[in-house]
Amino acid sequence: MNGILILSENLQTAQELEKCILGFGSILGTEIKIALTIEEALSYTNSAVQSRFPFTIFLMDQVFGPCKDSIRTMQELLEISPNTDTVIINGIDDSNERIRAYEAGARRYLSKKSELKEIALVLRDMVHIQIRKKELESKSIIAAQTSWAAELAHEINHEIYKIQSAAYLIKSSTLKDSDVFVNADIIWESAQNLANVGQYRDQAPTVFEVDKEIRNILGGLCDRKNITPFYSLDAAGFQIEVNKLGFRYILKQFIDNASYAMRDQDEKKISISTKIINGERLEIRFQDFGSGIKEDLRQFIFQWPVTTKERGGYGLLLVRQVVEDMKGEISLEPFMEHYGAEFVIKLSILVTGKNKK
Are residues 150 and 211 in the same domain? Predict the structure, then answer.
């Protein structure tokens, strides 16, 4: 998210606005830019849209742009970035101008009587609305994808069961040590693995020792991605009761993201640690050593689709959903240069005699 673009031909006014906005904290956007000319405004807006993170708000002085009429400029910018909200400030206190601004696409029209604090309050409310809108859009997308995926999984599983049945019949009609039997057994097992992939939501929670399962899962995943794992597992013997396929999905998503983040590095490595907190919660830390996640994306990483690829961006949204299905929590640690991205997951442990120390 690129926050707010201030458009004013008066640098002092723009800087005063910026200072006032920043006084309200990060809720008003992680980045504020100032455009003193229409050329700068167009350049900033095009760059933001191309980066797939358009501005949340255009904050425009009424006398900005050609003919000292910001409404014309606003229309040009909204053609490039149609989902950006526009607030016109220092507006002429005239009902006709106000109506013209709203008809052209402005969200708010503030007259010259407006104080800086009033402007900042208006922006805060608008950013809250934008954030809520994005969250609702993301939840709607996830719900639609989940429904679609369930239907697709049903069709795929139907075909998988046909493959398994055929493999079973082949195995039944051949000698156990023959190549045909061995290959049929491989086909049956592969089909079973495919069937399991789509069943995680229907699978009942499973009790397992978390440290052992992490090693089992990451061993194969890291080998395939040529990543070296460094373990610091301190929850030996402790068990959790969660959806096992969902747990695997979380680690697989982390490994896929880590592999992409470190794609240009000669040495690819990840660090994973576990520990028990207060005898009742499990903390899992997963860290890669890529370039990390940009500061302006961090607060939204679990809220709506974010990606540096050509498409996608739903991986961490779905990870958050899976973790929450497990009654757990997930967070992203503050950025540290050269330390990549570090995620923290907290889950409840299964309190049994075996787990008590």
Answer: no
Sole residue written with tokens 């097992």: 189
Which residue segment(s) compose the domain that 20 sits in? 4-114
pTM higher than 0.85 for the full model? no
How many distinct structural domains can be found in the chain? 3
Same domain membership, residue 293 and residue 219: yes
CA distances from 226 to 223, 270, 285, 291 (A): 5, 11, 20, 18
> Both 71 and 182 in a single domain?
no
Yes or no: say if 9 and 37 are a contact pair by the CB < 8 Å rule.
yes
**Residue 55 within a domain:** yes
| Residue count of the chain | 357
In tens, the pLDDT along 252-290 reads 989 988 998 899 898 999 999 999 999 889 999 999 998
Residue 161 lies in a domain: yes
Under a CB-based contact definition with an 8 Å cutoff, are residues 282 and 348 in contact?
yes
Mind giving me the DSSP string for 1-47? ---EEEE-S-HHHHHHHHHHHHTT-GGG-S-EEEESSHHHHHHHHHH
Alpha helices in the chain (DSSP H): 11-22, 38-50, 70-80, 95-104, 116-172, 179-197, 210-225, 244-261, 295-298, 315-325
Longest dimension (CA), the chain: 92
Question: Collapsing DSSP states into helix, strand and coil, what is residue 236?
Answer: coil
CA–CA separation, 310 vs 317, rounded Å?
17
| Ramachandran area for residue 178 (φ above 0: left; ψ -120 to 50: alpha; else beta) | beta
